[in-house]
Amino acid sequence: MINLCFINGSPKKEKSNSSYLIKELSNLLNSTTQTKEYFINNIMKDDSLIEEIILCNKIVFVSPLYADCFPSAMLDFMSRFEDILNKKNTPKIDMYCIVNCGFLEGTQNRIAIDIMKNYCKKLGFNWRFGIGIGGGEFMGSSKDMPINSRLKKPVYNAFLTMKEDIENISKSHIDNLLISPKIPKFLFKFAANISWKSQAKSNNLNPKELYKQIY
């Protein structure tokens, strides 16, 4: 039996794109893999959750991209997690990460994945690989579209690679996977503009007011 924990670094918790991606990957795993999702906001309030986490065989950090890095709450957790582990004899745990961003290009997540890789080494864990997903808002707003549909197929294939690595004892090197949904860029921008205008309207603003500056 494999015990796998997902650490969700998004401030939006259950409503986040990160949580959606966790559910999609979890659905691909077979019944011999037990999974549990932890939200960093909850972990920071309860140290006993960290005790649960370090009993797992494998950990997947899942987070949105914030300015080439992670949300500040995620960084606070990473620092605290490291401090606690330094006081324990923690076994080698296989570690992965999934980072999603609002940009269409998954390559935008490269630096954040490198940060997580270095963090993994500092913890003394066994780094496997990371997945960087572009078009995070598209992924999260199209939950009714199957993960193996044509537009989401690159994400589906990357998840299959991670599933296989999680379920098998593999020591072979796997490069980080930087992927984007198969949606044309012009269509992605068009949909994004509609979304911004819709959000502005719901907050009693018109599109022109989105361009206002404070100086």
From TrEMBL:
InterPro entries attached to this UniProt entry: Flavoprotein-like_sf
Superkingdom classification of source: Bacteria
Protein name: Flavodoxin
